[in-house]
Amino acid sequence: MFDSIVIFSSLALVLGLILGYAAIKFKVTGNPLVDQIDAILPQTQCGQCDFPGCRPYAQAIANGEAQINQCPPGGQEGADALAELLGVETLPLNEEHGETKIEHVVIVDEAVCIGCTLCIQACPVDAFVGASKVMTSVIEDECTGCDLCIPVCPVDCIHIKEIQPTPRTYIPKVTHV
């Protein structure tokens, strides 16, 4: 009888260690679907979709709490890509959340800028460089074109600059047949 208790206790210990190792080794961190949805979104962090950024919007889509057509910066192409990923019917872009705009960045008119730093505070991706009472400038490679800085500028020194495609940056539009 003592032998059977020792055998079963040893077996339970070994199987417990194996299960513990497997739990650590094969741990899933988060929902992989959220990562796939987030990769399709444009990462402008503009909040036009009624969520504070692209990741929360991706989580809401994955949980079925939001529609796939709430992202104006992603445009109809983004909604179509999300529909294809999720295997649902595509929806036309919801104009209630804004319109699709030309691809652009913002620039600061340095002669007019007073260095109030309101644009720095409004920028969700830290694309501005400057300090209080010093002229502010934009790091164009970091700017996502969300335009959240434009309405907060008290002197209207922030302007839109359209991005012209170059051979390095041109991405052809994919049309579904």
Compose a concise summary of this entry.
With 177 residues, the protein is mainly α. It has helices at residues 2-25, 32-40, 54-62, 75-86, 118-122, and strands at residues 104-108, 128-129, 137-138, 158-162. The strands form two sheets. The protein has a two-stranded antiparallel sheet. The chain has a two-stranded antiparallel sheet with strand order 2-3.
How many beta-strand segments?
4
The largest β sheet comes out as: 2 strands, antiparallel
How many distinct folded domains?
2
CATH superfamily membership of the largest domain: Electron transport complex subunit B, putative Fe-S cluster
Helical coverage, percent range: 25-40%
Helix-strand blueprint:
Blueprint: H1 2-25, H2 32-40, H3 54-62, H4 75-86, E1 104-108, H5 118-122, E2 128-129, E3 137-138, E4 158-162
Helix pairs in contact: 2-3
Please describe what this structure looks like.
The chain is elongated, with a radius of gyration of 25 Å. The protein has helices at residues 2-25, 32-40, 54-62, 75-86, 118-122, and strands at 104-108, 128-129, 137-138, 158-162. Helix 2 crosses helix 3. It has 177 residues and is mostly helical. The chain is 33% helix and 8% strand. It folds into two domains: 32-97, 3-methyladenine DNA Glycosylase II, Chain A, domain 3; 102-164, 2-Layer Sandwich (Alpha-Beta Plaits). The strands form two sheets. Strands 1-4 form a two-stranded antiparallel sheet. Strands 2-3 form a two-stranded antiparallel ribbon.
